[in-house]
Write a structure and sequence with these properties.
alpha+beta, Creatine Kinase, Chain A, domain 2, binds adenosine-5'-diphosphate, binds manganese (II) ion
Length: 352
């Protein structure tokens, strides 16, 4: 198309702000990074229309300075209603050849199955001035009890709910499948739940929801604390988890007590492999107190919030069919790795 000669096609083009989002190379928990590029499209771009892009990996612990270009490969796209013509582009990080996954790319190699459904319950604290929102300067607020699903200024303060509601709307606008939100057990602690079919699909949504929360909180001068036990393990304040609810087609449609017991035996056998990807510092949180099981034990129980895997009443009532809740993943865990580990253990158990 030649410049300066508007034609019909030209005048219908609009400049879109493409926010490319990726996970950096920090360990044990990667940080979210993002940058914007502007491109013209006739309408909201599809994934196929989004080009690969590059960034300086030497600034994100993803490359040496001498050969620093890493490649951003778009893998999921969502509307961003905070910006005119805004687009959120979740990316995988690739090596300079554009096809080899970077070692930090935890998404590229995970197990996936569109019939595996996941519901992640992301807990987190809102922080300001180095302490949870609503904690007095020095000291502590009234003990836990009224905060979980609480209402009223003394329980939730004056700004947290505004943040949480705004975040919910941003996520729903983006097409992220939020299923609910609630105030949590500790003061300043909140939760959102995201449900998705397929491990990559669901985990992409969790990462983008985390991104939107972090970005939203900038204007409130509030930080999001995703650590699983920010107040330490010796005080009577809950930690943050990311319970992973899961079901496969077989669990939903066939199930059965015998299959269920074999599945739980496989979970018990793979205790260490699960804990390895369930988030850092989980020994501080999985203590056997505060609705958790100890980190070195695997147990399951019907409606038991002190077990590693909680079996909903509905599961048993339906003839051992439905979904299960692994309560061990923590709030800083990588949902790609968590979902993949669950699928790996499930794959060890024959369904026939
Ligand atoms: P609780 O706080 O009581 O543990 P929540 O309501 O916070 O429970 O979370 C339950 C989660 O279970 C939701 O995120 C929901 O999406 C998920 N879930 C419900 N049914 C299924 C299913 N069949 N497969 C996988 N996850 C499911
Ligand atoms: Mn919940
Ligand atoms: Mn919770
Ligand atoms: Mn739960």
């Amino acid at each position: 198309m030649s410049r300066g000669q508007p034609n019909l096609e030209h005048t219908t083009m609009a400049k879109y702000k493409l926010e490319y989002i990726w996970l950096d190379g920090y360990t044990p928990v990667p940080n979210l990074r993002s940058k914007t590029q502007i491109k013209e499209y006739a309408s909201f771009p599809t994934l196929e229309q989004l080009p690969n892009w590059g960034f300086d990996g030497s600034s994100t612990l993803q490359a040496e300075g001498r050969s620093s270009d890493c490649v951003l490969k778009p893998v999921a796209v969502y509307p961003d209603t905070t910006r005119k013509n805004g687009v959120l582009v979740m990316c995988e990080v690739m090596m300079p050849d554009g096809v080899t996954p970077h070692p930090s790319n935890s998404r590229a190699t995970i197990l996936d199955d569109p019939d595996a459904w996941f519901g992640f319950e992301q807990e987190y604290f809102l922080y300001q001035d180095g302490r949870p929102l609503g904690f007095p300067e020095g000291g502590y607020p009234a003990p836990q009890g009224p905060y979980y699903t609480g209402v009223g200024y003394k329980n939730v303060g004056d700004v947290a709910r505004q943040i949480v509601e705004e975040h919910l709307d941003l996520c729903l606008d983006a097409g992220i499948n939020h299923e609910g939100i609630n105030a949590e057990v500790a003061k300043g602690q909140w939760e959102f739940q995201i449900f998705g079919k397929g491990s990559k699909n669901c985990a992409d949504q969790v990462w983008v929801a985390r991104y939107l929360l972090l970005r939203l909180c900038e204007k409130y001068a509030v930080d999001v604390e995703f650590h699983c036990k920010p107040l330490g393990k010796d005080l009577d304040w809950n930690g943050s988890g990311m319970h992973a609810n899961f079901s496969t087609k077989h669990l939903r449609e066939v199930g059965g007590k015998e299959y269920f017991e074999k599945l739980m035996a496989a979970f018990a056998k793979n205790l260490n492999e699960h804990i390895a990807v369930y988030g850092p510092d989980n020994h501080m949180r999985l203590t056997g107190l505060h609705e958790t099981q100890s980190i070195d034990k695997f147990t399951y129980g019907i409606a038991d919030r002190g077990s590693s895997v909680r079996v909903p009443h509905s599961f048993v009532n339906n003839g051992y069919k439905g979904y299960l809740e692994d309560r061990r993943p923590n709030s800083q865990g990588d949902p790609y790795a968590i979902a993949s580990r669950i699928l790996r253990t499930i794959a060890e158990v024959p369904t026939a």
